[in-house]
Amino acid sequence: TIEMYREPRKMVEDISALGLRHVGYAIPTEFFAPFVSGAVEVVRTMTTDENAEDAFRWSLTLISKVLVRTILEGSTIVMKAINTNQEKTLVKAISVSPRGKRSMELLNITVGTQSISPFYWAIESGSLITAQAMIKDLLTIRADRDNYYYGYDDLFTRHPEVVQRLCADAANLLWPLFDGLIWRSRVAVAGQRRVNYYVKHLMQDSEGKLNKAMEWLADNKDPKIICHPSVVVFSDVLWGQQ
Questions:
Q1: Burial of 165 (0-12, 13-18, 19+ CB in 10 A)
Q2: Using CA atoms, how far apart are residues 132 and 45, in angstroms rounded to an integer?
Q3: Residue 107 burial (CB < 10 Å; 0-12/13-18/19+)?
């Protein structure tokens, strides 16, 4: 609480970041007020200085208010669905979002200057069923009368190291990720169907330099995922340019 007086701006940012993490923990906000009261009662038994007690009460109350505001603003229906780890709940939650904003609902929640990724939080909290459903939704091509919508660019812009993260924490999600990078035409011509592979972000990063996706996959040492059609295509292109 002393730091709240010394560096208030920095502390508000740090507390906001902590509050966003509590969104994922599904902490009831009504618990904060009793906690503050209990902490103040404990301090009261430790000092007879009323000024110190008032200062502690004020700063802790401010901290609790920042946490409550952050949790309330960050508790989107997507974050609530992640806590259930059920695909149907996530699909229902994201279905109300417009096509143009759908991907960012799954990739970014911002409160003040702090942000959190619902997708990464699902992985971190072990809600892998929900995380797989999020990948499927992000990499589904949608359209209206004016535009096509595909969360591929948004995913790799928000998380350029997503392949590395999945290799480390959720290797079973690599296959759904690479499946989503393939579009197959429903129309067959002369017994063949057109197939598009969206592998740009696997080959180069946002600065136009060589992406480390192949290095991460090699370090993962999974012979099945290395044979996925998307991986084969982009690795053949890379080797063909050498």
A1: middle
A2: 51
A3: buried
**Residue in the structure block whose two tokens are 């904003």:** 101
CB of 120 closer than 8 Å to CB of 165: yes
The answer to whether 89 touches 132, Cβ cutoff 8 Å, is no
Determine the average pLDDT of the residues in 201-229.
91
- Which residues fall within 8 angstroms of residue 218, CB to CB, at 6 or more apart? 226
CA-CA distance, 132 to 177, in Å (whole number)? 8
Please return the burial class of 217, using the count of CB atoms within 10 Å of its CB with bins 0-12, 13-18 and 19+: buried
225's tokens: 């995922």
pLDDT tens-place string over residues 6-41: 888 888 888 887 887 777 677 788 888 898 999 888
Burial 51-61 (b: 16+ CB within 10 A, else e): eebebbbebbb
